């Protein structure tokens, strides 16, 4: 009898040990091993580097859970959204999809993203390692529809080699006045070259930062913009003055360079000083790509906040991207388990090379630092910068209302083109009034 | 005797089968089936969408003519894009066809190297609208690029010229499309080969020299092909997409915004809800415009095309 | 033309044509040479055509492909799609072209109008409705939408092109065949088809290249990395938010134009070898 009990106990111990081994991966409470053969669809945007990194992380999961395989669909940014919209049209979205702060409101409203709240409550999705602020960024209304895949913050990346050479010190919280001063200093020393590009294109990032500098949390609310015509005029005045005084690129000059491609961005590439800039308005998760291009150019990079009258009010931490589970998923439990793995598992995040940004789970972020720094030395820089931003920023604005897309395309782009003209046809007051009126008009139709 | 028995045995079906009208239908069957199966329904759907508000993520809602009204009364970008596209078509098409004709005539000449030459003149067409070409073109036309480097040796004022500024930018795209004249050239080459030698010989005998032979034999016989290429390239110009999207993305200030790019941006915006209904309306308007232009071209055909 | 040319004229001809060819092909040469440069130097040394430092890194890195599938897979996929759809296009378009050019039947004018109209449809707008329809047929995730429709002459361009060629064949041949007792079907296969070989070759080359370069259909209908064609794979090297690999792009783009170039080189002679002085009597 004793022998049988002993045998039984040792068997139990053995079983306990083996299941502990299989529990190595942080997949949450769902019994993934016994979920049967599942193929999960996973879509994201990115390039070959991200593709390889994600493949490694997913393959590692499959090694430990052979019944789980993946059908991945990676595209570049613009193809991605076209593809996802089409898949949404006919309810064939992949189980997991990468999401972006500017899009989640729209996608949640269309009921394409699964509410993860029940999974958090049941423990299947463990978000204890994330700060509440970060978790809340994935909420639209009461629903938690997305989990942060990498923390991010606005970052002005600048040519440190150049500023060191000229003995210029760039403060980490950069005011607009200082920004202008430094630019003019550099221009004076460099034959009028190495200027800045600011406010171009259709991005709401610039005016949002500006609005926050005035004390508002967001630029866009449900009913329209938070700016008055006067305040908006102040924004456009920055650009009109900048171009008039010659320290900002005008519309034609911007067309001549390639701002959209990091490797060809004027901070790191350009044959003559007149097509170069001394800094780039970017985000902290682009450090690695910019650094690679900078090294090719032989320059070292520095990092600080975007320029603003009140940098601490303007600056914010935001998810670089999210992961969401879609409502079209036929295996949401398995998808959530994989999500848990991607967020919380240290090995996964090492394999992911943190190239989507610093992991949202702060203990994981710290744990992987040593390994990732070996592959990507800018990881430490990003982590440090984010630590500074955390103390020098204000809460982020709510997820963008869905009318913002139309505002970007039809209003912001048009007005920024006008504001950056060499020979502007409109005054700051006219542009400011136009912005407020057009934005509120569009908002009223949604 | 055997003929008569054959005739008697010939069935009604066989007679019907061999009628010209039947044969015509049977030969056309692939297209008829194809059109019904693969084009009609999507086209009908697309027309339906043009009368709807449709953001793809939720089902379409009928709004009647609202899209069309907005396009014609309130949409400034519509007229801008249309203007840019017409300009592009009006200039790019003739240039392309003329170059294609000239080069085809030059290469219609049997030397050993001519095959190699034909390949090099055709090669640009093969590369199509790819990412590589976009990178290429930007690098070549930037203010410090190769084009300016070469041009400034002849015109010193061209140093640092900004090809991507608001005025010149469209020419970057026009040059790109003209550079890819190879496909039209190929069609001309094949047509040139179809002209019977006897005609040239007859003209020679009648005392015509090279130039006279060209204008009295070659050119008239080429007019159907010129017409074909003209129609084809005109339609292509109106529907051009990739160059504008990848190289200049419509800028600066929409000066290179092709109509189809504007349409695509409405259907698949960089951010925000899709305006698929609006985009569909834009598409149908373009279809009407292109049909009109093609119709006018066809109407003009009898005036200058010589049908043998 | 059998006129003799003076040797200096010949030399001048070659110089001018060769110079023109060089200008035409310079951008492509740039692409090919740049693909052998170290990736960091490609843009800074853009004006320098020949690399000072040669490397195969771009080819090796680019070839690795995505999600475990190399460009070898993508090449095979592209070949399969392009060859089959081209075959279908040639077959169906020549049939329809014959009908529209040579036969009289009711509704011919309307049909011709419809054929032409297919040339004017922008792909980007039909994208969504076509996607819905193909989804209805359960064709999403397969190659069917990218191949099958081409067996039904849906690209009016080729029908029109072949029509144009058939137009150049004297009607006397058709008449002679008819008198000899040939049916329209026999006339097509025995008489017309052999005479439109240049048009078929031209169409084959165009069709192959168009199918090879088409990425929009692949974007929608191919949802497995293993089935991706090159046209779609090439796009993934460049993403504005995460940086682009220009070296791999240029390297794989260079490889991508090789098949079409080879095809052209092989067939270009038969292309222009028309019916220059054969078979046309009277």
List the helices and strands and how they pair.
The complex is a heterotrimer of chains A (446), B (308) and C (282).
Chain A: H1 2-22, E1 38-45, H2 48-64, E2 68-75, H3 77-89, E3 96-99, H4 104-109, H5 117-122, H6 132-137, E4 139-140, E5 143-144, E6 147-152, E7 154-159, H7 160-165, H8 176-189, H9 205-213, E8 220-221, E9 224-225, H10 229-245, H11 251-256, E10 279-283, H12 287-297, E11 301-304, H13 311-314, E12 318-325, H14 332-344, H15 346-351, H16 362-367, H17 369-375, H18 378-391, H19 404-419, H20 428-444
Parallel strand pairs in A: 1-2, 1-3
Antiparallel strand pairs in A: 3-12, 4-5, 6-12, 7-10, 7-11, 8-9
Helix pairs in contact in A: 10-20, 19-20
Chain B: H1 2-9, H2 12-17, H3 20-50, E1 52-53, E2 61-62, H4 66-73, H5 76-107, H6 114-126, H7 131-141, H8 146-154, H9 169-179, H10 182-194, H11 197-205, H12 210-238, H13 242-248, H14 259-267, H15 276-304
Antiparallel strand pairs in B: 1-2
Helix pairs in contact in B: 3-15, 5-9, 5-10, 5-12, 6-10, 9-13, 10-12, 12-15, 14-15
Chain C: H1 7-34, H2 57-63, H3 71-102, H4 108-117, H5 123-136, H6 144-147, H7 156-167, H8 171-179, H9 184-195, H10 197-213, H11 216-221, H12 230-233, E1 238-239, E2 243-244, H13 246-272
Antiparallel strand pairs in C: 1-2
């Amino acid at each position: 009898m004793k022998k049988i009990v002993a045998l039984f106990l040792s068997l139990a111990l053995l079983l306990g040990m083996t299941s502990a081994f299989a529990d190595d991966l942080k997949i949450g409470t769902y019994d993934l091993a016994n979920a049967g053969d599942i193929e999960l669809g996973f879509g994201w945007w990115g390039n070959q580097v991200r593709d390889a990194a994600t493949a490694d992380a997913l393959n590692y999961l499959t090694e430990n859970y052979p019944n789980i395989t993946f059908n991945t669909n990676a595209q570049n940014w613009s193809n991605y959204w076209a593809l996802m919209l089409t898949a949404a049209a006919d309810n064939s979205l992949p189980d997991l999809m990468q999401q972006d702060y500017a899009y989640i409101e729209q996608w949640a409203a269309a009921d394409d993203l699964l509410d993860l709240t029940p999974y958090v409550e049941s423990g299947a999705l463990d978000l204890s390692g994330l700060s509440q602020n970060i978790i809340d960024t994935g909420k639209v209304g009461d629903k938690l529809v997305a989990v942060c895949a990498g923390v991010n913050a606005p970052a002005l990346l600048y040519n440190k080699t150049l500023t060191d050479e000229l003995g210029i010190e760039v403060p980490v919280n950069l005011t607009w006045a200082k920004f202008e001063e430094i630019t003019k200093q550099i221009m004076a020393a460099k034959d009028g070259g190495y200027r800045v590009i600011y406010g171009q294109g259709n991005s709401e990032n610039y005016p949002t930062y500006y609005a926050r500098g005035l004390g508002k949390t967001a630029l866009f609310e449900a009913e329209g913009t938070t700016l008055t015509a006067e305040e908006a005029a102040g924004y456009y005045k920055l650009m009109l003055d900048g171009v008039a005084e010659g320290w900002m690129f005008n519309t034609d000059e911007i067309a001549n360079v390639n701002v959209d491609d990091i490797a060809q961005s004027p901070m790191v590439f350009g044959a003559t000083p007149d097509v170069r800039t001394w800094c780039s308005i970017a985000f902290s998760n682009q450090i690695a790509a910019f650094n690679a291009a900078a090294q090719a150019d032989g320059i070292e990079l520095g990092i600080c906040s975007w320029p603003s009258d009140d940098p601490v009010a303007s600056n914010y931490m935001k998810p670089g991207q999210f992961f969401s589970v879609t409502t079209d998923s036929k295996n949401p439990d398995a998808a959530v388990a994989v999500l848990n793995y991607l967020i919380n598992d240290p090995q996964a995040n090492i394999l992911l090379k943190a190239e989507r940004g610093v992991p949202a789970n702060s203990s994981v972020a710290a744990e992987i630092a040593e390994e990732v720094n070996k592959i990507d030395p800018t990881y430490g820089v990003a982590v440090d910068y984010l630590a500074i931003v955390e103390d020098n920023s204000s809460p982020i604005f709510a997820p963008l209302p869905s009318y913002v897309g139309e505002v970007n395309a039809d209003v912001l782009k048009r007005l920024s083109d006008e504001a950056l003209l060499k020979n502007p046809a409109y005054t700051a007051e006219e542009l400011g009034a136009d912005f407020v009126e057009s934005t509120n008009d569009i908002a009223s139709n949604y | 005797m055997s003929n008569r028995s054959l005739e008697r045995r010939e069935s009604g079906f066989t007679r019907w089968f061999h009628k010209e009208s039947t044969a015509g239908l049977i030969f056309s069957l692939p297209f008829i089936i194809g059109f019904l199966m693969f084009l009609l329904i999507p086209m009908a759907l697309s027309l339906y969408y043009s009368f709807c508000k449709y953001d793809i993520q939720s089902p379409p809602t009928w709004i009647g003519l609202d899209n069309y009204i907005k396009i014609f009364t309130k949409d400034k970008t519509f007229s801008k894009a249309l203007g840019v596209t017409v300009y592009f078509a009006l200039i790019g098409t003739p240039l392309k066809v003329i170059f294609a004709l000239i080069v085809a005539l030059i290469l219609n000449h049997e030397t050993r190297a001519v095959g190699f030459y034909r390949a090099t003149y055709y090669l640009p067409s093969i590369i199509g609208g790819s990412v590589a070409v976009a990178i290429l073109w930007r690098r070549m036309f930037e203010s410090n690029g190769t084009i300016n480097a070469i041009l400034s040796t002849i015109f010193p004022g061209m140093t640092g010229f900004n090809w991507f500024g608001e005025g010149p930018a469209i020419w970057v795209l026009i040059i790109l499309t003209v550079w890819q004249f190879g496909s039209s050239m190929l069609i001309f080459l094949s047509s040139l080969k179809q002209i019977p030698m006897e005609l040239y010989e007859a003209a020679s005998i009648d005392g015509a020299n090279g130039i006279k032979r060209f204008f009295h034999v070659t050119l008239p016989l080429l007019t159907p092909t010129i017409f074909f290429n003209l129609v084809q390239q005109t339609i292509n110009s109106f529907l051009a997409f990739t160059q504008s999207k990848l190289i200049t993305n419509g800028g600066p200030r929409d000066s290179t915004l092709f109509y189809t790019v504007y349409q695509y941006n409405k259907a698949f915006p960089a951010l925000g809800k899709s305006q698929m209904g609006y985009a569909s309306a834009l598409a149908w308007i373009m279809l009407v415009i292109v049909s009109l232009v093609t119709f006018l071209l066809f109407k003009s055909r009898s005036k200058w095309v010589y049908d043998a | 033309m059998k006129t003799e040319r003076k040797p200096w004229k010949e030399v001048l001809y070659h110089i001018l044509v060769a110079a023109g060819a060089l200008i035409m092909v310079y951008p492509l040469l740039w692409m090919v040479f740049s693909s052998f440069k170290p990736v960091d130097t490609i843009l800074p040394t853009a004006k320098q055509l020949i690399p000072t430092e040669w490397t195969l890194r771009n080819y090796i890195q680019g070839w690795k492909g995505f999600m475990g599938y190399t460009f070898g897979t993508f090449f095979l996929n592209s070949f399969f799609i392009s060859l089959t759809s081209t075959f279908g296009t040639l077959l169906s378009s020549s049939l329809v072209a014959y009908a529209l050019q040579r036969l009289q039947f009711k509704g011919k004018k309307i049909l011709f109008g419809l054929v032409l109209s297919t040339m004017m449809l922008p792909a980007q707008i039909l994208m969504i409705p076509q996607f819905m329809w193909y989804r209805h047929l359960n064709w999403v995730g397969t190659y069917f939408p990218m191949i099958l429709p081409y067996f039904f002459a849906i690209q009016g361009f080729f029908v029109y092109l072949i029509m144009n060629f058939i137009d150049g064949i004297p009607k006397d041949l058709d008449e002679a065949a008819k008198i000899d007792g040939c049916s329209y079907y026999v006339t097509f296969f025995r008489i017309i088809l052999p005479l439109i070989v240049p048009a078929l070759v031209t169409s084959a080359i165009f069709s192959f290249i168009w199918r090879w370069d088409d990425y929009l259909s692949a974007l929608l209908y191919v949802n497995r990395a293993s089935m991706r064609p090159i046209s779609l794979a090439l796009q993934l090297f460049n993403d504005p938010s995460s940086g682009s690999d220009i070296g791999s792009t240029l390297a794989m783009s260079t490889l991508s134009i090789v098949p079409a170039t080879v095809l052209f080189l092989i067939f270009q002679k038969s292309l222009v070898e028309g019916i220059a002085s054969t078979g046309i009597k009277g």
